[in-house]
């Protein structure tokens, strides 16, 4: 097979990547909104863990009574935030530093990705344009407007793929760097294991076994302290909190591994179609979706020769997101920039293959113009990407103000956004919506189990964020008890409520 000849690859020092990075940095800062920390749950846990580290309390869920160890979230992103917290200990003013950090991480990822994408041989205008569209996609802006680990994860992933996807044989120094980047990516988000697998398998396919072994060894060395932490601290966690705070292995065991594997249906892909396609009848929408998927897949097949680590890592990523029982939408928005590049790659290659393929490309471009472009324009013009977080924040501002005024400093709240309540009121809090994984869905704990948990956790107050909250029906059942388990303290019409809780009996 003849060797693939690639165009000259630009470097990070060239002006183009810097300009894209600066644009992404400005865009991410512009996308920040005045939302409470914790509106998307994970962001609250990350920041609470950062506060614990900054205050010298260790890697613990200090918002929960007893401050059990953090098991669900790898430590690197909270550790980074904790360093910034030490520089500026005043919360929430120090969130500005967190925003700058996340924007810088996204900017760095953009610069690296545009250099990496040059290996595909795309015209410069298309390469930069595809990444610009991907980074400006409004669902991604929703994520980067909060304190979530995606920007830092994207930075390490992009750097790793750039290091591995090169023509020159991978020497020991480069293999160590790749292993370190893969390990760091996994310490940001557990799904970073796809980076380790993608890099190692790419090197094995190139018969570079020594380099693959070094990547795995260095990654394992970096991950070893985290694994030891998990093994040493599993027991202190209340089993009724496993679904919220357990390790991924504990959650998989609770859900049932066989049920998870049986559910592989690549449900992670439809969110990309919802983003890109116009609202048309299903008889039109499904063929368009298949056409876009075909072009995206073909773009990956073509790219596999020049960027195999990228293609393998994304494939593994989609498989894991599809398998895991969590809703896949949030996890797929992270890959939109790469998906945009691969779709552009598929369209360009298909265009060169004849009239029939050009018709398919033309239809796809029209579909994107009718779906993605107006949807994106409206979201950016009206800042709709921030609407969800702002909408969640509005009732929670009333609730946190009420908690601050109506509860003592040593109160223990049962509420759905427990980390948010702790950060903005200083009160300890536990989840009011208690559930366990059952296959690919969840099952709420029984009324009796939930009440017993409240009693064991010494809950003194129960809060509900609104009538649509997941725990609203349970709180209503508590309020209807004849033994007056709940005493109303604050309730907004069709809004949040706060109650004093008394353990029955």
Task: Offer a concise description of the structure.
The protein has 505 residues and is α/β, with parallel strands linked by helices. The protein has helices at residues 15-31, 42-54, 76-87, 95-117, 124-136, 138-144, 150-164, 172-188, 193-205, 209-232, 242-245, 248-255, 257-262, 270-276, 282-303, 308-323, 329-333, 336-351, 355-382, 387-406, 418-425, 447-456, 472-479, and strands at residues 412-415, 428-431, 435-438, 441-444, 461-464, 486-491, 497-501.
Task: Describe this protein's structure.
The structure is a single chain. Helix 18 packs antiparallel against helix 19 (about 355-380). This protein has helices at about 15-30, 40-55, 75-85, 95-115, 125-135, 140-145, 150-165, 170-190, 195-205, 210-230, 240-245, 250-255, 255-260, 270-275, 280-305, 310-325, 330-335, 335-350, 355-380, 385-405, 420-425, 445-455, 470-480; strands at about 410-415, 430, 435-440, 440-445, 460-465, 485-490, 495-500. The protein is built from 23 helices and seven strands. The longest helix is centred in the C-terminal third of the chain and has 28 residues, at about 355-380. The strands form two sheets. A five-stranded mixed beta sheet has the order 2-1-5-7-6, sandwiched between helices. It has a two-stranded antiparallel sheet with strand order 3-4. Strand 3 (about 435-440) and strand 4 (about 440-445) form a beta hairpin. The radius of gyration is 24 Å and the shape is globular. The protein is about 60% helix and about 5% strand. The protein has about 500 residues and is α/β, with parallel strands linked by helices.
